[in-house]
Write a structure and sequence with these properties.
Elements lengths: L1 H9 L15 H14 L4 H9 L10 H25 L5 H10 L1 H33 L7 H17 L2 H31 L20 H11 L8 H4 L8 H29 L10 H10 L3 H16 L1 H17 L17 H17 L4 H30 L4 H25 L1 H4 L2 H26 L12 E8 L4 H12 L4 E8 L2 H14 L4 E6 L6 H17 L2 E11 L12 H9 L5 E9 L3
Parallel strand pairs: 1-2, 1-4, 2-3, 4-5
Helix pairs in contact: 2-8, 2-11, 2-13, 2-14, 3-9, 4-9, 4-11, 4-16, 4-17, 5-6, 5-16, 6-7, 6-13, 6-14, 6-15, 6-16, 6-19, 7-14, 7-15, 8-11, 8-12, 8-13, 9-17, 12-13, 14-15, 16-17
């Protein structure tokens, strides 16, 4: 049943030589890898307004200069990451750049930040998409968390089906969103130019505002910079592009930057001119669409495409997280399971881990986007800063042709990224302080995992590990629960291995049962030694392990190895297991981690 459901949901397995077919062209890559950045248009301007409204509505005109600053930062990041794409064409982004130029710990801080960031990408995007849905259908507000979880599961299944298949499906909503936003901005600007929107709805640019401060403006700028999250995803996912991958990735990055700049500037300007104020139960884009078209068919098209892009923005995380996890796993900093491709040639373990982690976050924060965005944004600007600084070191060290221009671009990118990061820590410390705890903790865990893998390798390597202890003989202990075909099957198997001694062990709870079993055994298997153990507290494991300890101590004197051979019957239907005591599983669980003890299960399959 599980296999049938799996095939239905994710499709038939693909051959390894079909990997080349699982590459993205520029159109699909733009949709899949830019959806996070483009979707931030739906909440980035709103985050600026949420800061300015603490002063007054008259302060909304400051969104214009703040937006210009955000666009300048976007330009610096696009140019910087374009250089990273050509310098590191095999992907890895900030992790690889920082590791190679700033040292291993810097790379791990960048990698750890991005891993957390991609989890937050999914949680924030899905939460924001759910907000858009509940803005259009307010009666769904009580089900926000449930809707968000269902959307995560849906996106996860799509990604498990393979990157090209998910891209083919998800590209249409992304481009539909871009088209809908272009129509909204175009019609909105037309209404402004033709005088259909009153100029009294907003305060003129330059209006003095009491209570405004540099601190508050910097806070609004840093919050608005959350619109730039996702810019680095393309540099991480270069291996997903068709040949030539760096060239295609660079063009995709430029196209993404241009679209993001137009959409962000357009939404900010319309929000300012319409005098839009953020509301708890309606997004800024929803208010702009309602003011431009009214709550008609076009309004619901914009809300629908906005909800879709916000949900699908999570796909950027699904595209970039597994590839970053592969780089870290190859360096032995996270579990090797992340390097394994699934049935559809995607890194399915990374996809599933990302889904589970993001669902836990959504439940923890109850689907409230505004609670996640500060952590989300600061997690992006840490690797932004490290990546640009790493590129500075690279150009100074290597001094390639035109390195002064390249150095200048990365210097501006590094400075602005560092500035935004510090503004976040200064202005939103109460919301982002946890980064200062969990990032060092993540790096510490990385090092512990690396240490474990190195220790395992050292112990397994034939040239360095201790010489194997010679085995002179073998003693087999067979726990038995009765005189059955299951026990008979296990004893026959034990005899076939020709051990030096076979000991059957029976644990009795009553003295009478102990005597009766001994009599039956001597009649049934007189050639196999039986040891009966009385358990006053009705425990099987405790007396059995004590007996095994005794046998092991004696066996060790003669270099004998002890094997515990556990009989187990397997019902014909898997669900029937719940109808039987799982004593064999319990015994195996207790014995498996004992040193110098071999634990073997002998299955007996029932036919009916």
């Amino acid at each position: 049943m599980f296999s049938v459901i799996k095939r239905f949901l994710i499709g038939q397995p693909l051959k390894s030589n079909e990997l080349g077919e699982q590459k993205l062209n520029k159109k699909k890559a733009l949709a899949i890898l830019s959806s996070d950045a483009l979707s931030s248009v739906a909440y980035g301007p709103e985050q600026i307004l949420l800061v300015l409204i603490t002063v007054s509505a008259a302060a909304y005109w400051y969104t214009i200069p703040i937006a210009i600053g955000v666009l300048f930062l976007l330009l610096a990041l696009i140019l910087s990451y374009q250089q990273i794409i050509y310098a590191y064409p095999h992907g890895g982004g900030a992790y690889v750049v920082s590791k190679e130029n700033l040292g291993m710990n810097a790379g791990l801080f960048a990698g750890g930040s991005l891993l957390v960031d991609y989890i937050l990408t999914v949680a924030v995007s899905i939460s924001a998409g759910t907000d858009a849905i509940t803005s259009a259908f307010p009666h769904l507000h009580p089900y926000t968390v449930v809707i968000a979880i269902l959307l995560v599961i849906f996106i996860t299944i799509l990604n498990l089906r393979g990157i090209t298949e998910s891209a083919s499906i998800l590209a249409y909503p992304v481009y539909l969103f871009v088209l809908a936003l272009f129509i909204l901005i175009g019609v909105g600007l037309y209404n402004i130019v033709t005088g259909n929107v009153s100029a009294e709805l907003h305060a003129p640019i330059g209006t003095p505002v009491a209570g405004i401060s540099l601190f508050l403006l910097l806070r609004a700028f840093s919050t608005g910079s959350s619109a730039l999250t996702g810019v680095e995803a393309i540099s991480n996912a270069i291996p997903n592009f068709e040949d030539s991958a760096p060239k295609n990735a660079s063009k995709t990055l430029m196209a993404m930057g241009l679209l993001l700049a137009i959409l962000f500037a357009g939404v900010v300007y319309l929000a300012y001119y319409y005098g839009i104020s953020p509301k708890e139960k309606e997004t800024v884009v929803s208010q702009i669409a309602a003011a431009t078209f009214g709550r008609n068919f076009m309004y619901y098209i914009i809300q629908g495409t906005t909800a879709m892009i916000l949900v699908l923005a999570a796909n950027t995380g699904y595209s970039a997280f597994p590839l970053l996890a592969v780089n870290l796993a190859k360096d032995k900093f996270i579990a090797r399971m992340f390097t394994i491709r699934g049935d559809r040639l995607g890194y399915s373990n990374g996809i599933i881990f990302l889904a589970v982690a993001s669902i836990l976050l959504i439940i923890l924060f109850k689907g409230k986007t505004e609670h996640l965005i500060p952590l989300y944004a600061v997690g992006v600007f840490i690797p932004f800063t490290l990546a640009q600084t790493g590129m500075l070191v690279k150009w100074i060290r290597e001094k390639p042709k035109g390195w002064i221009v390249k150095l200048t671009i990365n210097l501006v990118g590094a400075f602005m990224s560092f500035t935004v990061m510090m503004i976040f820590f200064i202005t939103k410390f109460g919301q982002v302080w946890s980064v200062l705890i969990f990032l060092p903790l993540i790096v510490f865990i990385f090092h512990q995992i690396k240490k474990h893998y190195e220790a395992v390798g050292e112990q397994l390597r034939i040239t360095t590990c201790e010489p194997a202890i010679p085995i002179e003989g073998n003693v087999m202990i067979v726990p038995v629960a009765g005189i059955t075909h299951v026990v008979e099957n296990s004893l026959n198997y034990a005899k076939s291995l020709s051990p030096d001694q076979i000991i059957a062990v029976y644990v009795a709870f009553e003295r009478d049962a102990e005597k009766q079993f001994e009599e039956k055994w001597n009649t049934w298997q007189p050639d196999i030694r039986l040891v009966t153990l009385h358990s006053q507290y009705r425990s099987i494991v405790q007396p059995l392990t004590k007996f095994i300890d005794t046998v092991e101590n004696k066996a060790a004197e003669s270099n004998f190895r002890v094997t515990v051979l556990i009989p187990q019957f397997i019902p014909k239907k898997s669900w029937q297991n719940i109808l039987h005591n799982q004593s064999s599983l319990l015994i195996r669980a207790f014995l498996l981690y004992r040193r110098n003890l071999i634990v073997t299960t002998v299955p007996y399959h029932l036919k009916k």
